[in-house]
Structure formats: structure tokens, C-alpha cells
């Protein structure tokens, strides 16, 4: 009886904020039936001697740990502990797709101070500690997303059973929001999966599939999803999961099942090594330096995570819990966390189709041009079940494109996220061809042919002769105005721009460009396809360079100017990554391709004149002449060699740079000045896009900048999203201050000229300090 | 080797029917795991059994319904006017399946054949690593999903809420009924086989009625540790061969034979190989009944292939569910479950064993014998197979 009373006391402290729980507390001795109380988020069934606790956030696809859910959960658990007929408990969700997807972000954002957040964290810690110490075994039955706070609930339980479903993922994504697992996760996870794996999970925030989780020891049993039976597969699978979990709960209570996991030799060896303080110190050091390198010290969360884990392991649980709660509170109020949360909301916003459902779903897609882009677009379409025609004009190009699609899918087979059979059946959606056969069935055509208006006009006319009336014609171009392309069309209302980013299967952004003539339904159709392809979609108005290319233009022009002033490309890269760009500015030009950059710079230069001035475009032209086209040619500002990681500066560039050398202007070439010259031009142009109505809101502007220009920090390898977030122009303008921004621009304007003239919108913001892009 | 078993079945057929060898126009055999030396096992066995070397023979494969396919191929040939007399059958030798070298080893060995000089040969041999010697065993797993059949059966049983006890009870029923049928001498379709160097096998040797307690002690064989399919409630793999004589009615009557049974109608269907791998009989039964103009009530004898007790019970539940019929079969109502007193009353694959390629003919002949013994008119045979395919056949007694 004694331990229970202590717990009761602890609970009272922790839940002084909600009336709901005190109601349940009063009832705990007289009732075990949830029906008597008005619970809306958590319910409880007693099945024999096992209590089944069900989470169900009303009117939502996922369950979140909101104040109300936590309160009701505490309440239900107290009843279970008080009920002598119950010997064990199962925690499960009523929603097949989500166990608990994490904490309620609105709840965190509503907190004004770090103390408030720390309090929330401590409430959670106490509750989960009670579950961990519960004399009645608690089994988590996991189906669907088990993330963040949800995972912390699961690992506080004594046993975990999960469905081996694609939808079932476990993880601690807090770091991606600039936070850390704040309900005991930093303390339990290392003990459960070992220090290296725990760091990996918490620092990358990656999702772990159920089968992998089983291997890591994160879950104890897997349940295969069931097919059709006497109920729908989803309904029966979760019922079956519950049955299996109940059996294990009963077994644990009867001691016929042991919660102790048999560990492999490797795991035991790792555990042994990690128990040695000396080895642990080494691990901390390695992880810390890795984080430093990746984040450039711009993100406080990963370092905090290391510190909190370290404290827990070296100084014991109490110290660990305390610093976890405190750090959680501190992190939640940082500007980095707020920026990442803003980004998260933006992402959610850009995963919705504001044009509604299109009249006709795109089932057959035709892609023109089997180059890097075309094949990439085909790849992200076929694996979503869209029949895709990939057309090229030459067999060689087509072969290369088809091979690219195959390779992309096959790499998933190697990573075991796809079976070879699934790969084959996905590939059956792809038809590679050289003619227009089958285009009469196409619902949408996306052209990814050479960036030349005449070529675009030619294919547009050819395609319009063979496609049905409802078919949408989308142009994948990074700079050619869509209205100019549409001028050759008989049906301009069906013409739209879909600007993908390379590599298409890795870059999340899709920039959709509508002209004055583009119909709503065409836009709806394009957005629907983009979302189906898994993209984050922003919709912008037509204009030279649209939004993303246009913002980049002035900045790259400034990069050239800086290089001309004799700054080493490596230094330019270092300065820009130190600011928060995931890829250095000089590297970015190499990645984009110098020829493409020249092309775009020329076009935009014509359209915008002086505002795109600064660097000399002739420098690019000379580079193209010399064949220094960037990464694709093996040489640009850098030399690229297969298998060589540390690339060196292209010495052939010295001569070119020498030729275009301009004297640096002494009073604005400190590192900070160089950084600000790049950034202010970038932000100024973004604001200009908003002012001109190219962008419909700052949120999409930020998303476009982060996901379109933020190259995945590590191509090919594991991609962490840690590098994202700080270079979102509008959030930066808010935090830096429009006034300060305008001051800088004016200063540079005086030195360099009108390319630095601040736009009206920025001036307006500077003049009224209460104005913010993000409220 | 498999053709030895097949030869014995063919010789048994010749002895029992005393059909003149040269009357047989064609021979079709079903088999699943092929012995590479006798890939057309039908031809090798026929030659060895003393059939005319002028009688063509071919081998078919369709997983567990391979000999059903052999039969219906014969039926088709007769219907098309190609032949009058066809021998159909199946064979499986599970006790000696071909085990291959690894792909790397095979590649090395094939290249070695082409190596000309001793130096080339030695350099190839020097590249062989220990992992080259890992053999490849054939698995009873779906190629498309990599799921073993037992695992799929366990999931199927769970999807239909079939309990462990129900499965054990059904398996016990199968063994008890088989034992009874064997004791009463009803299993007359057995041909004794002299195993070279060993004793003659005269009867099915897998029939082992046990007790529910003993069966309850077994651990799950596939979904560990909480599944319900065990060794005791699954069909076991065994060696076996079967053969039957199929003729057009006119030819049979002209030759003075009295038909044992008429093969009236058949259908093949297939479904999702992942979740409905073993659910075929449910889909196919109403189809064949409609085709033959019969209802479930007209059938006197049901002979279903028992891959797993859980699979049979899941099918019975599915056939008895309006919800399933409406949502998955596009039918207005259920076809109904066959009454158990007409269902596999002489045992089934659970107790008699399941030599993949041979089982189909055994099912049909058992149904014919049961019809004759019980004086029934219509029989229905159903068997599910890997790849989510299934065949049902409707026959009648003369």
C-alpha cells in the first residue's frame, strides 16, 4: 500500500493545473468503469485481470500528448493501480495509424516561460516514472506513429509489442524542433538501446521501423499485420495486437513471460564497454565533435542532449531528470526552437492543397526528357502508383533515365525499405519510349527538356496535338517565365509551372507557378500531384525566376563579386555555412552548374537590371568556356573526384579570378560584412517577391528558401535535417530586425550601388517596429 | 529419384485398370520441386513404367495444385478432340530435393568450364572463398513476399479469429478420421511401394491420432512465440506420387469401362499472394457451383486440401460470412460453409500428408470413392496453392 500512497502524493503535485485529474483521483477507489466519467481522450476496458487503456484524441488523425490526454491518462492509471482485480495493463490506441505521435505543440507554444515548460516536463517525468515502477506490469501495444512523447510513454512501460507495419515508426524527433526528449527519454533510452544507438536516435531524430526497433531492443515483440478477415484488415490487426498484448501482460503478471531481453554478444560487449567511464568519455567527445561539425554550433539542442545524457549516466537518475526538465524548458524558448517549430507549421501548411481536389485525379503522367530531372520526377511518381510515361528523343538518353529510376528504387531495396518484388512491380508503372504513343491517355504532361524557349515551344505544340482536352501541361523550368511558354499554347488555362529541385528524389520542395490564365483546377491538379509525390509545395505567381531562383540570383551575384575581390572559395563557403546555409555559396554554384547559373543570371539580369548586378557575369562565361561547369563536369570552383572526400580548390580558376579582380572596398570586407552582403541581398529580394505578390505569404517564402535552397546536408548518406532552419528569410528579418536590416542595406548601397536599395516592404517594416512577417 | 515413385504409380494404374498401354494417347504429370535430371518427369516415368515410347508426355507445375492442373490439362485435351485417353498424375520427392550451390560458386564453376589454360583455372579456383560453399535450399516461401506459407497461415487464422484450440481440434479430427478410414480399409487408392534396400510401404504412415493435451504442448512453428500454427496442426511434407486414367465417356464405354466418376466442371482463381494466399477455396467454390448449376446443398461429398487446420477453418468462416462475401468477393451473400459431416470424412492432407505435386489426384479419387461408398451424387474438390491460386473441381458419380 505504501508505494502507492507515495505515488498518489506525487501525482497531486504534478497535476495541480487541471481539475480533470482531481476528479478522477476522487473516484479512484469507487469506480473502475470509464463510462461513468466524461473522458474524451482516454478510455479503459477491463478484460479479465487486464486493463486495456485506449488513447483517442477526438477529431484528429493522430493522438497527441495534450494536457487533457495526460490528465485523463494519469487518472485512468490511478484507477488501475487502485483496482485489486486488475493485475496488469495494456496501453493501446484506438487509431490504427497512431499510437501517440508526440506532445501537443500548441501546448508547448502556449507556454510563456521556460519554467512553465520545465513544469510540463516534470509532470511527464513523474507520471512515467510511476509507470516504470508500477507493481502491475504495463505493456505498450504500438501500432502507427510512436514518436517523441509517445515513445517516452512506450519505453517507460515494461514490455512493448508493435505491429510490423510500414506505418509503425518509433523515434525521438524532438531535436528537429530544437528540443530534447523531455519526459525521461534521455535517461531511459541509453539504458534500453545502448549509448551509441540512443545518441543516434536522439541527435538525428530519425524514424525507426518496427523490425529495426525489434533488433535494437526497442520493442520486445512484433505482430504482423493481418489481411482481410471477418473485419477490415486495419480493425482486425489492432484487435489482434490487443489480444497478443493482453496475453503478454498476463504472462508478465504471472511471471511466465520475462521482460528481460536476451542480448546478442555484440550488444553485451558494447554495454560492457559503455560501462567504462573512459570509453564513455570518448563517445561523448566523438559525438560532440560530429555535432559541432554538422551544426556549426548554430543549434543548441544537440549539444544539450549530449550534456543531459552525460549527466544522467555519470551522476545518476535524479540529476539526469532534473537537468532534462530544465534543459527542455530552456530549449523551448530559444529562437532556434521557435524557428524550427515555425518551419514545422509551414511544412504542415505546404502539405495541404489550398485549391481543393482536382476534377480529375492524375492516373497517367507523361514526362518529357529523361535527364536527371525528368527521370527523378518519374521515380517519385511511379512509386506512388502513378502510371508514368518517360519520353526522350534518343535511346541513349532514355536508357540512362530508366537506369536512374531503377538505381533509385534499387537503393531502397538495399536499405531494405522496399522488397525486390515491390521494386519490380513499381517499375511496371514506368514506360520508357521515344514516341508519343499513349499520350492520348495522359492526364498530365510534365516537360523537363532543355531550358530554351524555342525547344519548350516546340514540345508544347507537339504534345498539344496528341493529348486529351483535360490534360495539364506543366513545365519544369527554373527560370523561363511560364506565361512566355504558355504563349504558344492553344489552351493556356491548362499550362502551369512545376519547378522541381535536383536531386528530385531527395529534395522535398516543389515550386508551382501559376500564370494569370492558369485555371484553378489546373493548379489543384498540379498541387495534388506534387503532394502525392511527397513534396512540400509552395505556389507562387509567374515572373522571371519565380521565387526561389530569383532570391538566389542577387546573392550569387554578390558571391561572384566577393570572389572577384580575392576571397578564396573555401572562405566564402565557410562564411555562408557559418550563417546557417547548409551548403557553402561557392559549392552551391558548382552544384547548380555554372552553365545553368550563367543562363539564369543573364535572363534575370535582363529582367531586373541593376538589382542583379554586382559580380561580373563574364567570369561565369569564361568558366563555361574553359569547361569548369561545376560538379557535373568534375571541375568548377573545386575539383571533384570520385571517392575523394576533401575536394581541393580548382587551381585553373586562379587565372580567371585574377582577370576579373576588383579591389576590395576596405570598410566593408570583414567576415561579418561579407556574410551580411550575401544575406541582405537574399532577404531583400525575398521581401521584394512578397511585395510584388509573387509570394502569397511569408510562410511559403521561408519554406521555399529552406527546402529548395537548403541542399540536403549530406547527399547520398544519411540525411539529417539539422542544417535547416536559420536561412529562412522572413523569420530572419523578424529576428534580426527590419530596421537593422535596412541600415545595413543603406550602408552597402552607399558603397556598392543600387543593388542594395532596400525594397518598400522592408522600409515599411523598418518604420513600424511592431510589424512582423510572422506574428 | 522422383521418377521412380511416379513409375510405381503408373505401374499401379496399369495393373488396376488393365488399360492397354498403347491406348494411352498422352501423359501429363504435375510436380513442384523439380529434379534437374528429370525435368520432364512425366516422360521419364512413362518410359520406365513401360508405356509406349510413342506416347508423348509433359510435366506441369502449379505449386500444390500441380496434379489438378495435370488432370484439367488432360480434360482439356480430350474436350478439344486431341486425345481420347489421358493419364494424369503427380509426384513429389520431398526427402531428396535439389540443393544448389550459391550463385557465386555456380558462376565460378561455369567460368571454370571455359578456362583454357591451367593458369586460368588456378586463378579462378584461388578466388573461391568460404562463403561460396553456402548452399541454397529450396524454401516453402512465396517468391513475391518472401513469407513462408506457415507464417501466412498463422496470419490468416488470426485474421479470422481461429483459436489454437479450434485448430488442434480440427487436426485431431483429421487424424482420427484418417485412422478410422484406414482401419476400415477405405483408403483403397494406395499402391504399395518397395523402397530399394528397405521395407515395402503399404499404407500411409503419417496418421497419428494424438491427444489435445499433447498437441497443446507444442510450440508455435512459425509466428514465435505467440502464434497458433504448430507442427501438429499443419500438413506435413512427404513423398508421394499419384496417377489416374481420364477418358472421354464414349471411349470408356466403347472399351467396356464403367466410369468411376465424371469430372463435370472446374475453375481456377487467384488472389493476393500476401494476405489471401490460402483463402482461394472461399472464392472458387461459389464460382464452380454457379458454373455447374448447383448449390452447396446439392453436394454430397466435400474434399478440401488441408494445408493447415487454421487455413481450413478460416475458409469455412469466410464462406459463412456475408460481410466477407459482400466486401471482398463482390457477392450479395455468403455461399455458406460446407457441413462438417460431409467434409473430409476420410482424413485429409493434415493426416495423410502433402506431397505437393501428387495431392490433387488423391483428393479427386478420394472424393470418387466416398461418393461411391456413401451413395452420393455430387462431389466438390478444392485445393489452394502458392501464389494465391486455387482450383476447385466438381464431379459426380455415375
UniProtKB/TrEMBL annotation, chain A:
Family as reported in the entry's similarity comment: Belongs to the enoyl-CoA hydratase/isomerase family.
Organism (species): Catharus ustulatus (Russet-backed thrush)
SUPFAM superfamilies: 6-phosphogluconate dehydrogenase C-terminal domain-like, ClpP/crotonase, NAD(P)-binding Rossmann-fold domains
PROSITE patterns per UniProt: 3HCDH, ENOYL_COA_HYDRATASE
Name listed for the protein in its UniProt record: Trifunctional enzyme subunit alpha, mitochondrial
Location relative to the cell: Mitochondrion inner membrane
Site (Important for long-chain enoyl-CoA hydratase activity): residue numbering on this chain: 152, 174
Keywords: Acetylation, Fatty acid metabolism, Lipid metabolism, Lyase, Membrane, Methylation, Mitochondrion, Mitochondrion inner membrane, Multifunctional enzyme, NAD, Oxidoreductase, Phosphoprotein, Transferase, Transit peptide
Enzyme Commission number: 1.1.1.211, 4.2.1.17
Location of the active site: 511
Domain 3-hydroxyacyl-CoA dehydrogenase C-terminal: 545-640
Catalysed reactions, semicolon-separated: 1'-[1,2-di-(9Z,12Z-octadecadienoyl)-sn-glycero-3-phospho]-3'-[1-(9Z,12Z-octadecadienoyl)-sn-glycero-3-phospho]-glycerol + hexadecanoyl-CoA = 1'-[1,2-di-(9Z,12Z-octadecadienoyl)-sn-glycero-3-phospho]-3'-[1-(9Z,12Z-octadecadienoyl)-2-hexadecanoyl-sn-glycero-3-phospho]-glycerol + CoA; 1'-[1,2-di-(9Z,12Z-octadecadienoyl)-sn-glycero-3-phospho]-3'-[1-(9Z,12Z-octadecadienoyl)-sn-glycero-3-phospho]-glycerol + (9Z,12Z)-octadecadienoyl-CoA = 1',3'-bis-[1,2-di-(9Z,12Z-octadecadienoyl)-sn-glycero-3-phospho]-glycerol + CoA; a (3S)-3-hydroxyacyl-CoA = a (2E)-enoyl-CoA + H2O; (3S)-hydroxytetradecanoyl-CoA + NAD(+) = 3-oxotetradecanoyl-CoA + NADH + H(+)
Pathway as given in its UniProt record: Lipid metabolism; fatty acid beta-oxidation
NCBIfam families referenced in this protein's UniProt entry, alphabetically: fa_ox_alpha_mit (TIGR02441)
Feature type site, description Important for hydroxyacyl-coenzyme A dehydrogenase activity: 499
Taxonomic lineage: Eukaryota, Metazoa, Chordata, Craniata, Vertebrata
Gene that this sequence comes from: HADHA
InterPro entries: 3-OHacyl-CoA_DH_CS, 3-OHacyl-CoA_DH_NAD-bd, 3HC_DH_C, 6-PGluconate_DH-like_C_sf, ClpP/crotonase-like_dom_sf, Enoyl-CoA_hyd/isom_CS, Enoyl-CoA_hydra/iso, Fa_ox_alpha_mit
GO molecular function, one term: enoyl-CoA hydratase activity
Signal sequence, renumbered to the chain: none
Primary localisation category: mitochondrion
Quaternary organization: Heterotetramer of 2 alpha/HADHA and 2 beta/HADHB subunits; forms the mitochondrial trifunctional enzyme. Also purified as higher order heterooligomers including a 4 alpha/HADHA and 4 beta/HADHB heterooligomer which physiological significance remains unclear. The mitochondrial trifunctional enzyme interacts with MTLN.
Record-level GO BP terms: fatty acid beta-oxidation
TrEMBL record, chain B:
Keyword Transferase: yes
Compartment list: Endoplasmic reticulum; Mitochondrion inner membrane; Mitochondrion outer membrane
One Pfam family linked to the record: Thiolase_C
Residues that span the membrane, as ranges: none
GO BP terms, alphabetized: fatty acid beta-oxidation
Residue intervals of the Thiolase N-terminal domain: 2-250
Subunit structure, interactors included: Heterotetramer of 2 alpha/HADHA and 2 beta/HADHB subunits; forms the mitochondrial trifunctional enzyme. Also purified as higher order heterooligomers including a 4 alpha/HADHA and 4 beta/HADHB heterooligomer which physiological significance remains unclear. The mitochondrial trifunctional enzyme interacts with MTLN. Interacts with RSAD2/viperin.
Its job: Mitochondrial trifunctional enzyme catalyzes the last three of the four reactions of the mitochondrial beta-oxidation pathway. The mitochondrial beta-oxidation pathway is the major energy-producing process in tissues and is performed through four consecutive reactions breaking down fatty acids into acetyl-CoA. Among the enzymes involved in this pathway, the trifunctional enzyme exhibits specificity for long-chain fatty acids.
Protein name per UniProt: Trifunctional enzyme subunit beta, mitochondrial
Provenance organism: Catharus ustulatus
